[in-house]
Design brief:
Order of helices and strands: EEEHEHEHEEEHHHHHEHEH
Strand content: 15-25%
Largest sheet: 5 strands, mixed
Radius of gyration: 19 Å
Helix content: 40-55%
CATH superfamily of the largest domain: ATPase, nucleotide binding domain
Structural class: alpha/beta
Low-confidence stretches: none
Number of helices: 10
CATH architecture of the largest domain: 2-Layer Sandwich
CATH class of the largest domain: Alpha Beta
Number of strands: 10
CATH topology of the largest domain: Nucleotidyltransferase, domain 5
Strand order of the largest sheet: 3-2-1-4-5
Number of domains: 2
Length: about 325
């Protein structure tokens, strides 16, 4: 019996899936709980292989980086095979996209590779586009947001969610104004000690975004607040949609205005006010698709099954 355990982490918890004898089971684990133990319980057996997305090596604090490190330890301790799929830093930016305006910092190709590449493949299949040539913008909507320009299967430009570049998400602040941010850091003492710097990063990555505007701690509470028309929730989602639409415009420019589709994926793709807020600003110029179902876990399970059968999928 072959069992594949796939995991995908964000700041507010870890999603997991199990493929066992052709059956797929899914679940979620809140922060602080053992996702691997929960995966074993869901499968009723130890996995044959553990599959996770790759994180960002320079930022071990990021949820996907932590998950990759934990998966390596779990696999080594239990003698279980491990597969890392599509690290976050795997975009191949065109040369001009690497310039930040600050000569000492080069922009990086960091994005939510697993769900966004899966969204690209599903979009070209849905729209009968040539996968090697399609020009698509994918948007991951989660605790962080990343907006990426695909020219064929190459990602030529992307906002960097780990660096807080781009639109704000559910918990992450997105791009702050540079000089105002420097002043804020100085006021909070974040330039004086590692502990203070950690607190500032936590505020930017886990205590900001739409949840902070709404005063809620999870997407279910946000959905309820939106249905009641609560001002903070409406403000947060409206602002998030506005920033995402603007970033889509930037990525349209990166593709020289020739775009076949915009694809929205991730947990936020199930929030109608967020999707309509983006679509109302971009749908006049380009077709917008929203994939509400989780694409990351099925994609990872597929990769794990392919690895067990020694037939890795090519892209």
């Amino acid at each position: 019996m072959s069992v594949v355990l796939a995991l995908f982490a964000e700041y507010r918890g870890t999603r997991l899936g199990v493929s066992k004898d052709g059956q797929i089971l899914t679940g979620s684990v809140p922060p602080g709980e053992d996702a691997f133990q929960q995966g074993e319980a869901l499968a009723g057996a130890s996995p044959s292989i553990v599959v996770v997305p790759g994180g960002v090596r320079e930022h071990p604090w990021h949820p996907l980086s932590r998950l990759e490190a934990e998966a390596r330890c779990y696999s080594a301790e239990n003698g279980i095979r491990m597969l890392v799929v599509d690290p976050m830093s795997s975009a191949d930016l065109v040369a001009e996209a690497r310039f930040s305006g600050y000569k000492e910092y080069e922009r990086r190709g960091v994005f939510y590779a697993v769900p966004q590449r899966a969204a690209y493949e599903k979009a070209v299949e849905t729209l009968s586009l040539p996968a090697a040539e399609a020009r698509v913008i994918t948007v991951y909507l989660g605790d962080e947001v990343s907006v990426s320009a695909h020219r064929g299967r190459r990602i030529v430009d992307t906002s960097d969610p780990v660096a807080c570049e781009g639109p704000f998400g559910f918990t992450s602040a997105g791009t702050p104004p540079a000089t105002a941010f420097v002043s804020w850091v100085a006021q909070r003492g974040g330039d004086r000690s590692p502990g203070a710097a950690f607190e500032l990063r936590e505020a930017l990555k886990e205590g900001s975004g739409a949840f902070a505007y709404a005063g809620v701690g999870d997407q279910g509470a946000l959905s309820e607040a939106l249905s009641l028309g609560q001002e903070g929730a409406v403000t947060g989602i409206s602002g998030m949609a506005y920033q995402i639409a603007k970033e889509i415009g930037r990525q349209m420019a990166a593709l020289r205005g020739r775009v076949d589709a915009v694809v929205l994926c991730g947990p936020g793709a199930s929030l109608t006010p967020l999707i309509s807020g983006v679509t109302s600003r971009t749908g006049k110029w380009v077709k917008v698709l929203a994939f509400m179902k989780d694409l990351a876990i099925p994609f990872l399970l597929q990769e794990g099954n392919a690895a067990l059968s020694s037939k890795p999928k090519t892209r």
